[in-house]
Fold each of these.
Amino acid sequence: MHISEGILSGPVMAAGAVVSLIGITAGLKKNNYDQMVHVAILASVFFVASLIHVNIGPVSVHLILNGLVGLLLGIAAFPAILTALVLQSLFFQYGGLTALGVNTVVMAVPAVLVHYFFLPLLGRTSRLTFVAGFLAGFVSIGLSSLLLGVALWLTNEDFFKISVAIILAHVPLMIIEGIITGFCVSFLLEVYPEIIPHKKK
Amino acid sequence: MLENVIIGGNSPIHSLNPKIRILFSFFLSIAATLCDNLIVALGYLLISLSLIGFTRLPIKVLLRRLKPLFWCLLTIWVFVPLTFKGNIIFQYGLFSASYQGILLSCKITFKSLALLLMFISLIATMPIASLGAGLHQLKVPDKLVFLLLMTYRYIAVIQGEYMRLLRAAKFRGFKPGTNLHSYKIYAFLSGMLFVRASFRAKRVYQAMCCRGFKQKFHTLDIYPPSKLNYVFSFLMILVILGLVIIEQIWI
C-alpha cells in the first residue's frame, strides 16, 4: 500500500510531510534511547512483515501489521513506520523520498488511532482480546486504504474511481489482517505480556 | 534478500559526499514532483537517466529494482485513461480512453521513473552507515538516525529468525492455504517473531553496549573533500533552476 512518487500533488504531499513531522517529533520526544531500541525492534518486525506472504485463493498478499505495531507502540509508531518505509524504499524501491510523508501518514495515523481505541480492551477476557485485536487489524488497514484513497482523490477529482477500486481491493486484506492481528495479540498476551504497553489506570 | 549489490561501486556518484547526495536528491525530487509539464517532466527523466548512467549500475539489477514501480504504473495506465473525463480519442464498447487521461498517465510515468532513478542513483547507492552520517551532518535528530541504523541492524536478525520459524513449520508439514488454520499459524509465527526478535535484539544491544557502543554509529567510508563535490553541486543547482525557470516561462 505505497504511493509511488510523481502521482500526488504538491499540497497533498506537503500536508503529509507536515502531519508526519508532527507525529515523528512527538514519537521521538516520548522515548529515550533505551526505549528506542524497542521501537527499532518493532520497526524491523514491521519491515519483515512485508516479506510474509499469505495466500488468498490463487494470489498472495503480504502482511502489513500496522495495526499490531500501533497497538504496541502508540505515537512512537510514527518514527518506527517512517524508518521501515525509508528502508523499504532503499532496498525495494517501494514509495520514495517525496511520497514518504504521505506514506507515513497513511500507515501511522490509523496505527496510532487503533492504539488509543483498542489497547484498553486487551486482556479483559480472551474473547474480548481477540475481538479487539481483530478490530485493530481490520480498522487500521481499512483506514489506511481510505487515507490512500483520499490522498489520491485530493490530488485529482478524476482519481475517484481508482480510489474506490483501491479501497475495495483492500477488503480481503482487512479481514486477513484482522484475523492475524487478533490471534497474534492473544498469543502475545499469553506468552510475552511484557511487550504489551501497560494501561494507565 | 537484503544484500545491496548497488552499494559498492567505483563511480563518480559513489565517491560524492553523502551530505551532498542527500541534499540534492531532496531538492531535485521536490522540483520534479512539482513539475506539471510533460516536456519538462521528460527533462527530469533525462537528468535522472544521466545520473544513473554515471553510477554504472548493471541494467539487470536496475530493471529488477524498477519492478514495483511497473506494477503501480500498470494500475495507473489501466484506470486513468478509462476513467478520466475529457476528449475521447478511442472507444471500444463500454471502454473509452480520453486524451487528458493518456496525457496525465504519460506525465505520471515520466515523473515516477525520473524520481525513482534519482533516488536509486543518489541515495540507494550509499551504504546505510554513510546515509546515517550524511543525515547526522544535515542536522536530522540523532534519535531518528539511531532508530534508522538500529532498525537496519535488527532486520537481518529478525529476517533470519522468520526464515528459521518458517522452515520449522514446513518441516512439520505446514502447507499454506486459504484457510483459518494457515492464518492462525501465520499469526503465531509473527507473534513468536516478536518474542524471539525482542529477546535477541535486547541481547545484541547489550553486547553492543558492552563493547563501548555510545548510541552513535561511525562510518568507515571516508569521503575526502574533492572538487567533484563542488562541480556536482554547481551542475545540480544549474539544472534545477534551469528546469524550474523553463517551466515557469512555459506556463
Amino acid sequence: MAVKDYLRERFFPHMWCPGCGHGTVLNGLLRAVEKLGMSKNEMVMVSGIGCSSRISGYVDFHTLHTLHGRALAFATGVKLSKPELTVLVPMGDGDALAIGGNHFIHAARRNIDITALVMNNRIYGMTGGQFSPMSGYGTSATTAPYSNIDHSFDVVELSKAAGATFVARTTAYHVQNMADIIRKAILHEGFSVVEVLTQCPTYFGRKNRMGGAVEMVKWLKDNTTPIGSKAKQENPELIERGVFVQKELPEYCNEYNKVIERATKGR
Amino acid sequence: MTKPKPKKPKPKLKQLHLNLDWCKGCGICAAFCPTNVLEIDDKDKVTAARAQDCICCKLCELRCPDLAIDVETE
Amino acid sequence: MEEPTTRFVQGNEACVEAALYAGLEFFAGYPITPSTEVAEHLAIRLPQAGGRFIQMEDEIASICAIVGASLTGHKVMTATSGPGFSLMQEGLGYAVMAEIPCVIVNVQRGGPSTGNPTHVSQGDVFQARWGTHGDHAIVAMTASNHQDLFDVTVEAFNIAETFRTPVILLFDEVIGHMREKLVIPPAGKIPLVERLRTSVKGGVDYHPYLPREDGRLPMSDFGGEHRYNVTGLFHDMWGFPSNNPQVVHGLLRHLVDKIQNNANRMARYKEYYLKDARTILVSYGSSARSALHVVKNRRARGERLGLLELQTLWPFPEHIVREKCETAQNVVVVEMNMGQVLQLVKQAVDDPDKVFLANRVDGGLITPTDIRNILRLIQGKGV
C-alpha cells in the first residue's frame, strides 16, 4: 500500500502551520506503518487535545480524538478490551507530560502494548504559545514573559524510570531514523515511548528568536547526536538520540490473559 | 551504529510530484536538499528548479511537513 | 429455564451481579469509599466470566478507559463515589458527546470535598444532571432495596445500549453497604438489549452519527471493517469535527431530544397508597425505606399518607409527579440533602407552596422518627 492510502486525503492541506514539525512526524509514522504492511483495520490511533492531537483526523485508521491529556487512558481501554489491535497514541508535550503526566507514567508502569509518540515542540501551540513542561528554564513564552523559571522533564529518563520497555528519541530532521524508530516501537511488545523533537516556528521559534522552520530544523540537526557519540563526550550539552531502552518484560494484556486463566481454572 | 549495507544500483528519477495545493512553502525541502534541486518560488510554493540534479534520496519527501512531495523513481 | 439464586449480599455486590447479568465485559475503576466493593467483587467475578477488570490510576482514567473499551464493542461500567464522581465529569461529558454506551455507578457519600466518606448522603442529584459542562441530557437512576437495585442496574445497561448514552446509577452509602436478600433471576428472565450494529458492508460509507428513523444509531466496533472518527468536538455524521452552525445545532438538539423525548419510557417509580392520600411523601434511595415505614405505620392508624418512590431521577419524571400529587394537600420530599429533588417537585406541581422538605444531612440515615417529627411540624402538631 502506498503512504497516501493511509491518509484521509479529503482533509488536506492539513491545519498545521507552515513548517510545523507535526506534519513530518505524520509523514514518518506513515512510512513506518507502510513498511510494516499493516492493515488499516487493525490500527487504532488515540489522541488527546492540542495541535499534535489533530494528527488522528488525518489517518485512515480507527481514530479516537479524546480529552486533553487522557489519550493513554482511553487507549488502555481500547487495547485491554481488544488486545489484537495495534494502538498508537501521538501526544504533544503538554498533553503527555503536564495534564496527562499521571496517565503517562502509569501506562508505562503497566507495560501495556501501546506506542506513545511524544511530539515535543516545547510549547502549547493550540492556545497560542504558553510554556509547557518541556519549554525549559530560561525560555520565553506568553505565560513566561520574564523568562521561564520552570525546569523541564527529560522524557527519556522519565519514561525509563516509569518502566517503559522501549524508549527512544529522534527529531524532525532525522527523518529516516524517525521512521525506523517508530517502526521498531510499533513492533515492540510492551509500552514504547518515542520522543520526537519537532519545531514550532509560529510560537516557540518566534518567542525564542530561533528563526523560521528551516533554522529550527537545522537547530535539531546541530544540537543532537547519536547515543554515546564522541561529539557528546566533547559537548555534554548535545541531546542524545537513538534507542535508549529495548527490553522484554511481561506485557499487560498477556498478563491479564493469565488472570483469566487463573480465575476460570477448575470451573 | 550499523555497518554500511552493500550498495544498491542508483535509483533514477522518473518524476518529481509536487502537490502545490498541499505545499505551504516552509522551505524545509529546499534548504536540506543535498543537490539543491528545489526552490521556493515567489508564490511561496516549491518548484523543481534543477530536477536533473536529483539523486532520489527522498529526504524532501520524508521531511516535507505537508506531505506534498512524491519522488517517483524508475 | 434454570432456577433463581437467592443470596444475602451488600448492595454493591448486588450491583455487580446485575451488571454481570446484563452482560458487563469490561470494568475500570479506582478505589473509593463507599463504592470500593463494586471494584473488589468485579476483580474476582469479571475474569471468571472472561471479562476484563482494570484498576486505573484515578477516576479520570477509569471513565476514559471504559469509553475506549465500549468502542471496541463491549458492555462497560465504572463505579465511584464523591470526589471520584467529580473527577469523572469531564469523561462523562465526552461519553455524552461521542454517544458512548456506558454505565457509571456513584455510591453517594457526604460532601462537598472529602466530606463524610463513610456516611450516607444524597447530595449528588444535581451533580449527576449538571456536573459536566455544557448543555446536555442525562439519565440517572436509583433504588431503595437490593432487588430494585438489581433491576435498575440491568435497565441502565439496556438504556445505555438503546440510546447510545452514559447512564448514571445514583446509589447511596446505606444501599451500597447494607446486606439483604437478593434473588438473582435465571438468565433470560429480564430482557437484555444488545448493541445495535450497522448492517452497512465494509468499503461502503458508514455514518456512525446518523440516526435511523427510529432515532437509534447503529455502531461499528473499533477493529472492524468501518474506520471512522470519534471526537468530543461537535462533529458531522462521519464523526469528523465541525463548527458549521447547522451541524452544531443539529447535534446538540439530537443529544438532548434522544433522552428527553423518551423520558416517559425511562421513567421508573413505585407508588404506595397514593389514591386517597392527603399527604404524599416523595422519596428515593435509602430515604424511601424510612418513608415507606412511616407511610405503612401511619396508615395503620388511619392517616391518609402515601409514598411516591422515584427510581428514575433524570430525566426527571415531571408529569408523573404532577399527576400523582395533584389532589394531595401536602407533598413532603424526603431526601438526604438540602433539598435537591425538592426543587424539582416544586417545579412539577401546580402549587409549590404545598411542598415541604423532610431531610437529614448529618451523615446519619434519615429515620422514620425524623420524618414523623417533620410531618408533625408541617401539620402544625409540634414535635
